[in-house]
Amino acid sequence: MIYKIKQKVKSVLKFDNSLHNSNTLPKILNEHKTNKLHTITHVSAFNYGNAGDVLLPIALQDTWKKILPSIQWENQPVYPIVNDKLVEKINTSKGLVIGGGGLFLKDTNANQISGWQWPCSIEMLHKIKVPIFLFAVGYNRFRNQDEFEPFFYENLTAFAEKAVYLGIRNQGSINALKGYLPQQLHHKLRFQPCMTTFTAELYPELTDYKSKEDFIAVNAAFDRSHLRFGDKIGNILTDTAKAIKEASKHYPIKFYSHMPSDDALLPFMQSFGIKYELVRLNNAHPSDIIKEYAKPKLVVGMRGHAQMIPFGCKTPIVSIVSHNKMQWFLDDIGQPEWGADVLSPSYGHDLTGRIMSSLDNTKHQIEFISEKQKELFNISINNVKDGLTAMHLV
Hints:
Blueprint: H1 2-11, H2 25-30, H3 32-35, E1 39-44, H4 51-65, E2 72-77, H5 84-91, E3 96-98, E4 101-104, H6 122-127, E5 132-139, H7 150-162, E6 165-168, H8 171-178, E7 189-191, H9 199-202, H10 204-207, E8 216-218, H11 225-229, H12 233-248, E9 253-257, H13 266-271, E10 276-280, H14 286-294, E11 298-301, H15 305-312, E12 317-321, H16 324-332, E13 339-341, H17 347-359, H18 362-390
Parallel strand pairs: 1-2, 1-3, 3-5, 4-5, 5-6, 6-7, 8-9, 8-11, 9-10, 11-12, 12-13
């Protein structure tokens, strides 16, 4: 565990604001003295090898900079235990922003302190004197996964009491978290979509493709596969491969791998003779990840960010639902039928039908996505304004 944390901390060094518009650099350098007055601590997982999570901290920071370009971010990995030294560092900044990502999960950075990924005790929490915010955080408990420990309830309640607001990335997560909080704190929960869902609003120069390329991108996920698929994993992956085979009769297939474990679907695709190009995104530059997801005619994805990043790049999606968060996102955008649930008896038929329907409606779906992501972006900007107001920075 210590080795993993060291690797995660080390990876923070990769974040060099490389997606920020270079034209702003002279202005920022000229405002160096002002920047020191606008320092905000940012707690996040940062880059630890999962292509989707690489984008989160950068996109969050760029969203806040839309309102206050002079923010100087103090990056802090989410995994180390919060102690007096860290609290002192946080208190020298103007505020603390935690997110994004599915941080409400008990077995990633498991600890007996908070019960979720940020191991901050109630004692340390009380010592933080600056405004605190969650921003685009999700309730990531898998289906049939063990319940959170009792001290998670206590920690979350203390956190909600302390925070200005808890920005949660989908309504499903908001509803789930209400079950851990007393009713008088429910108002602290507010909708804050993942920043990757409006990528084109942040980086139009990376997503401005005149037309989509004629191929379908496919992604899979196999972390906690027993919780995703149960004892029907063989049938589910076979049905998935059959649907991809049918789609491959119309367009070439590229397999987008976020992590090496994603590749477990490939033998099933190979068994059906599906020709595909393997595209590894786990070590790709953030701008290249965005460009790749802006290209396809359709993305069929199982990972949350193989759903949200293409959506943010104005690319049509069909989601393979093996985690509730996938359906929650589709429900939030008013397109529940854009997914196929792996536990449904008609999963294979549903997936094939969703894919064919999307391919027949590309233009209409792109138009819908363009309008919806503007709505998500505006919600986010209003949340940023509230945050900066609470920090007395606007």
